[in-house]
Amino acid sequence: MRFLSGGFRISLLAAVLGVLLALPAAAAHNGNNKGDFDGSPATGSATINYSEGQGTFNGSLNVKGLQDGDYTFAVSLNGANRTELCDFTAGNGRQGCSFNGRELPGFNLAEILDADGNVVDSAVLARRGNCRDPQQGGSQCEANDTRNNLP
């Protein structure tokens, strides 16, 4: 950098630092969640991803091992504030459903409900990627979100 003047070097350094500091803020909008059902009775997984561009969640449930019947895929925060996401019918083989474009409150469990609304199975959703910005609805940021007192 000997060929650059002192003032230009400082300006260049400030610009690079500004870009680097802005990167974590942009990444803070990601909130990807995955839960695995262990076979009691369902085996499979639930995935719920936050779509930064749309400001909503998309997700899917893919399981096997349920008795024949109608079910609902839902999320909740420790079993409370349940939000139903999509319905499916179990039969032979793998079953499940998907949803997109949903705004969700805070959640940490994926749940499978029977036709009467009873929880048949649940899986803890592990957060992957970075926390979402706490100012967004349904924020999952552990360090910053005191609204839902997430663990």
Number of helices: 1
Biggest sheet, spatial arrangement of strands: 6-3-2-1-9
Which series of helices and strands comes N to C?
Answer: HEEEEEEEEE
Structural class: mainly beta
Q: So what's the overall shape?
A: globular
CATH topology of the domain at 32-128: Immunoglobulin-like
Helix content: 10-25%
Instruction: Tell me the number of strands.
Output: 9
Classified by CATH, the class of the domain at 32-128 is Mainly Beta
Alpha-carbon Rg, integer: 21 Å
Low-confidence stretches: 12-30, 143-151
What does this structure look like?
- The structure is a single chain.
- This protein has 151 residues and is mainly beta.
- It has a domain of 97 residues: Immunoglobulin-like, CATH 2.60.40.
- It is built from one helix and nine strands.
- Strands 6-3-2-1-9 form a five-stranded antiparallel β-sheet, with no helix packed on it. Strands 5-4-7-8 form a four-stranded antiparallel β-sheet, with no helix packed on it.
- A hairpin with a 5-residue loop joins strand 7 and strand 8.
- The C terminus is likely disordered.
Which descriptors apply to this entry?
globular; 4-stranded antiparallel sheet; Immunoglobulin-like; mainly beta
Summarize the structure.
This protein is mainly beta. It contains one helix and nine strands. Helix content is 15%, strand content 44%.
Describe the secondary structure blueprint for this structure.
Layout: H1 6-27, E1 32-38, E2 43-51, E3 56-64, E4 69-77, E5 80-90, E6 95-102, E7 109-113, E8 119-124, E9 126-128
Antiparallel strand pairs: 1-2, 1-9, 2-3, 3-6, 4-5, 4-7, 7-8
